[in-house]
Design brief:
It contains eight helices and eleven strands. Helix content is 40%, strand content 17%. Helix 1 packs antiparallel against helix 2. It is of the alpha+beta class. The longest helix is centred in the first third of the chain and has 16 residues.
Amino acid sequence: KGVDPEPLDEEKLDSIVEGAKTAYTDEAKNLWAALLAKELEGTGSYTKRTMRMLKEMESFDAILFSEVCAYCSGGSDEQGNKYQTIPLIFLDEDGVNYNDGAFSYSDLTRLESIGLVKLGATTFFGPNQNPVLHIGSKTYVLIHRDNRISFGNLILTSFGEEIASLCAMGGAEGLSSLVVEKMSAQNVQLVELPDDLKLQQK
């Protein structure tokens, strides 16, 4: 879509241009393009440290982190309202891999080593909370009784959240089925919201 550019200070613009020059994969190029678009729209406020981290990120890391984001609930609706970013990364029964083998332990510790994720941490919601998950084009509210529910075995750091906002979220194949399976084990039901109720739930 068209963007009416907002003033962007020269130092930040130079940082974005220099960073984009180091991008060789489509995933890395897409991250820099999204960052520039958000800054011009006035919807982004990325720290110098985050931009430096993005510039220093190896091509493999950009691809891997983009794949992790595909297993996250998040993004924005058509009106630009943001959904909470929740990684939906679950440890497999083998105790080594995650999300039916989509990620290995070494994959995720690699992202942890560069400061994007924290492995072994969990997102919790209490008895009186009914979180909303936005997965792909669908939005779900989680219905549960008076029990605490948990999501996965990984959270994003503050820098990870900033970079994740540049990625496409929730598009991994089979993600909805995976979440239904994991939530059913906690006696939690996913109810898909019709479009006219989505904004009221957030």
